[in-house]
Structures are given as structure tokens and as C-alpha cells.
Write a structure and sequence with these properties.
- The chain has 164 residues and is of the alpha+beta class.
- It contains 4 helices and 7 strands, in the order βααβββαβαββ.
- The protein has a 7-stranded mixed beta sheet, with helices on both faces.
- The two termini are 27 Å apart.
- The mean pLDDT is 94.
- This is GNAT family N-acetyltransferase.
- Keywords: Transferase.
Length: 164
């Protein structure tokens, strides 16, 4: 499997594939964002946003950008604010349904963690949505239940973080 997987930075030609993956991942929720919002988040930090190719197809993506600890992107905003922070916020990680169960999310996470360390980030934060808190806990993220989140992230959303 190793030679069939390639993680690279997002390029302009990837957006149709990213938007399709994002829409299919969030079909049953209100979490899906417009293409312009996704692009804005990636443009805020191109060095920490990635596409995962599996057998020359886009199988997943990850968007992460600097954000102050305990803050997070507003899902209703199309244009992202650019922050200078030692905290890297993992805004979105999606693996296409037909590619799940192969450890690809863990590969993307590992790649992000290594990149974050090389760029001197101190922490990685995220908001676990759709019942994914267990996955993130298994990957060493700790819940911060004291952080109030807007309804737009879903009723079971949990702010989480870990040290790089």
C-alpha cells in the first residue's frame, strides 16, 4: 500500500475533488461549507493543508490553519481571518467513504503533526463533530468541554487539542 499513497499540498486543480469529498462527508449534517469558504481556509495557511492521493485519486484532504487556542473558524463566514498563532487548528479532515478503514486518516494526521513540529507550532486543536470524539481521543487529543461551541458545529461537537 505504501507506494500507492501520496500526501501533497493542495493545488488549484484539487478543489472540485475536495468539494465533492466534503459534501459527501457532511451530507446528513449542516456542516458542509461552500467552496469559497474551504478555499479561504486553505489560502490562510497553504503549508498546512494537504491532499491524500490513493492510486492516483484524491482519497482525502486535511485543512489546518493557525488559530488562537480555544478559538475556531466561524462556519458562516466565507472569508477566513489570518492569525499568527503557535496553535494550529485542524479545521477539516475527510477520507472518502470508499477509502476508509485503510489507516489513511492516521497517515494524514501524522503528516500534519510532523509538519506542525517543523513549523514550530506548539499545539494542534480541532472540533470533533458527528460523534468523532472517540477517534480523536485515540489519537491523543484531549477534550475541553468547558469551551462553548456554536450550534453550527452540531449538538455533540467537542473542542479538543494536543501538544505537538
Amino acid at each position: 500500500m505504501g507506494h500507492d499513497v501520496h500526501i501533497r499540498h493542495v493545488s488549484d486543480g484539487d478543489w472540485s475533488g475536495i468539494v465533492a469529498l466534503e459534501a459527501s462527508a457532511y451530507t446528513d449534517s449542516a456542516l458542509s461549507e461552500e467552496r469559497a469558504a474551504l478555499e479561504s481556509r486553505a489560502h490562510a495557511s497553504p503549508a498546512t493543508c494537504f491532499v491524500l492521493d490513493f492510486e492516483q485519486q484524491i482519497a482525502g484532504y486535511l485543512l489546518a490553519l493557525p488559530y488562537p487556542m480555544f478559538q475556531y473558524p466561524d462556519l458562516s463566514r466565507m472569508e477566513e481571518t489570518i492569525f499568527h498563532s503557535r496553535n494550529l487548528h485542524l479545521h477539516d479532515l475527510v477520507i472518502g467513504e470508499s477509502f476508509r478503514g485503510r489507516g489513511l486518516a492516521k497517515r494524514l494526521l501524522h503528516h500534519l503533526t510532523v509538519t506542525a513540529g517543523s513549523k514550530m507550532y506548539e499545539r494542534i486543536s480541532l472540533i470533533a463533530v458527528g460523534g468523532s470524539e472517540t477517534f480523536w481521543s485515540a489519537n491523543e487529543y484531549k477534550a475541553h468541554h468547558e469551551v462553548a461551541l456554536p450550534r453550527s458545529y452540531g449538538a455533540d461537537a467537542v473542542y479538543m487539542s494536543k501538544a505537538v
